[in-house]
Amino acid sequence: MADALRNLATINGRFAPTFAKTMLATPRAAGEAEAFAAHCQAMGFEFTTDWADNNIPFVAPLLREFAKPRGQIRYLEIGAYEGKNLAFMDWLLPARLDVTVIDPWFDEALNPEEKYHAVEPRFQRNTAKLNFDNLTTRKGFSTYELPKMLEAGEAFDLIYVDGSHTAWAVGVDLAFCAAMLKIGGMMVLDDYWHHESEIGGPGVKQALDRFHAVFREYFEVTSVYRQVALTKTKEIPR
To answer: Has this prediction a pTM greater than 0.85?
Structure first.
């Protein structure tokens, strides 16, 4: 309750109307989380976390509406972990996605937690069961990989940002993703209410608030809850 009150007290005023609409007026997809859980069990996925399951009633109708007028969707995901969100996207929008994933998993110098030795193989086993048109995996940190992708002329319809929680890294992710997002495309940022990163210092919220303060004329705020969805309305001069 204390965290919820702090979040409400510190909400970005520009996001407040959309937050109210999302929480009070937007239809939620009743039963979607349970249906996806049953799908995961039937498929025999090896997921060990349920971090994002509470997002499903909000994000499922948002993504379905986004996909309605589109054919194939170029999709970028930053921070794949075991592949659970990829499995959700494959379940929600079957045979619609051309996917690129960025994740460092275990890195001896910068991401040396031993648990990642087991996470990457689980990701490989889980994603082997998916039916994407294409799945490209870039093993590395998004702050290093995104500049290469921008230089190569990559462009995406839909981007999901759930990598580092430090404000610096999130700011880099948002800047490069905004440049590679097509007009009319949408990027969804997870963990908006993280005021402080796990390693200390400012977190996700500060990065997104400042990004939107600078670039708000180029984006429509589409949805705000634990995640924030921004739809690109025009190209950003750069």
So the answer is: yes
